[in-house]
Amino acid sequence: MTSLTVPDYVPSPAEDCEQLNLAFAGWGTNEDLIVNILAHRNASQRRAIRDCYPKIYGNDLLKDLDKELTRDFEKIVLLWTLDPSERDAVLAEGVLRKWHSKDSVLIEIACTRSSKDLHLVRQAYHACFKRSLEEDVAYHVKGEFRKLLLPLVSAYRYEGPEVDMTLAKLEAKILHDKISDKAYEDDELIRILTTRSKIQLGATFDHYNNEFETAITKDLKCDSDNHFLSALRNIVLGISSPTMYFAEVLGDALNRMGTDEEALTRIVVTRVEVDMEAIKEEYHTKNGAPLYKAIKNDTRGHYEDMLLALIGHE
Amino acid sequence: MTSLTVPDYVPSPAEDCEQLNLAFAGWGTNEDLIVNILAHRNASQRRAIRDCYPKIYGNDLLKDLDKELTRDFEKIVLLWTLDPSERDAVLAEGVLRKWHSKDSVLIEIACTRSSKDLHLVRQAYHACFKRSLEEDVAYHVKGEFRKLLLPLVSAYRYEGPEVDMTLAKLEAKILHDKISDKAYEDDELIRILTTRSKIQLGATFDHYNNEFETAITKDLKCDSDNHFLSALRNIVLGISSPTMYFAEVLGDALNRMGTDEEALTRIVVTRVEVDMEAIKEEYHTKNGAPLYKAIKNDTRGHYEDMLLALIGHE
């Protein structure tokens, strides 16, 4: 469920543009007004504002926001204002330009979006960057990570309800054998994780967890410095329990020395309109304290205001 | 340009269904009538006939055709009647069920369709087979062929006009180095062929051909028993000169001991509504005789009638 709150009376896009333009006018910027408007408009309303703004003021709204805002507040407002598929394309390109094996953004996008949405991300990537997503993955990522990430971002997984239990048992055993042998880069292990439908993989992971007595996510957790192992674990968690995955990333971003604002911003803007309420619940259970408290502790100013507005805790 | 001829007056789908049902009625089947109707309707008209038929007769048209027809004539009528993306999905699944490294069907579909059309094939594959195309490729194909075919069928290549000449020169050299070293299964060679846009690859191949004095297709032709090498050559030819590729496949299917009806049928039904006129010209130039003559020499009966009707030579 979404945590977005949209007012009963939503002003017309032209009225919103006028208010945003007022917020930019004169010395200083009225950040509160920007939060008040943008943090309370859904994707199609924001799209309408973006389409309307240049017709009235001749400028691109994102460019004006970019000019007026700074730092973490700028980043969250810009990312939030984008269409979901465009935003994912921008996030993916951002990590690819300075790719590091510990980045989980590509895995997150590839494993927690629907097949249709992942295809929309690939379309948006064409439009934004004049290249394909998989072209950039193959170009920037080398070795075993390329072998894993290329099929992952190129997948168009089947999404029907069919489960083949014989196959699930067979492939659970393959996964267990390979993981026991520490053969993490094995072709068959990668084939199973990158091509099977999520429902089929759910059955495979369930069988693994029951048959071999340890959860597959636990078997993949033995070494936190092994980024490839973490990648495999993120794939399994992102596919089987996206809510837990997102709560865990938020926990890691907040409960550490120095907040990871990049991850915090990313999870909030990408999940607000999808499943933020479930993520907040999961976060609370996992950490014994509500998400908004951790955000209040760790962030400041308009960035904090924007985060709290988006998760529904103003 | 299409070789399809559609009559000035096209009967309504219901009238076509009535005639088809007459063709099936009583003892024996009126194959001429089937050719007369179906070989002269475009994809959307055939779709309308397929949608209309069960409403009148309660049966699926394809099942009735399957019951009434036999052998090569049956195969060509069934394949022709399908939607283009559904037909490609059926062709791909057909080769995957009994995959052999000399099959070029997957390469043909992956390299000669537009990015959008290849995505439609993947959607149709979901609908027809309750699995994804790449899932079946990864499952049925092993080793170096999996490494090549999986990214190929999963690609969503960028289709804009941009060419990076520096990159083209750099990657032409990589291709040349790898081919000279017979390192055909090299990661970089496969990355370039499977992810770059077709226009970018065109520039890369042009640079290869000019800089290294032998055409890349020639460098990839040294050993016809090496199926992997043939696969690479088919990729290059399918991407850079699809018309030549199709004319070559038709030539191989016809000018040999025992016609390859499978390839002949496939190329005809998949190209009639796209570029069959150009393929016929290329075939004529290459073989010194028109395509219809070779078809008349090599095929018989209603199968021959259907082929000639489709290529516009009744």
CATH evolutionary superfamily of the domain at 85-156 in chain A: Annexin
Q: Helix/strand/pairing class of chain A, anyone? A: mainly alpha
Shape estimate of chain A: globular
What fraction, in percent, of the residue positions of chain A are helical?
over 70%
Query: Could you name the CATH topology of the domain at 85-156 in chain A?
Result: Annexin V, domain 1
Number of helices of chain A: 20
Please tell me the CATH architecture of the domain at 85-156 in chain A by its name: Orthogonal Bundle
Strand content of chain A: under 5%
So what's the oligomer here? homodimer
Distance between the termini of chain A: 18 Å
GO cellular component, one term (chains A, B): cytoplasm
Keywords (chains A, B): Annexin, Calcium, Calcium/phospholipid-binding, Metal-binding, Repeat
Family (chains A, B): Belongs to the annexin family.
InterPro entries (chains A, B): Annexin (IPR001464), Annexin_repeat (IPR018502), Annexin_repeat_CS (IPR018252), Annexin_sf (IPR037104), AnnexinD_plant (IPR009118)
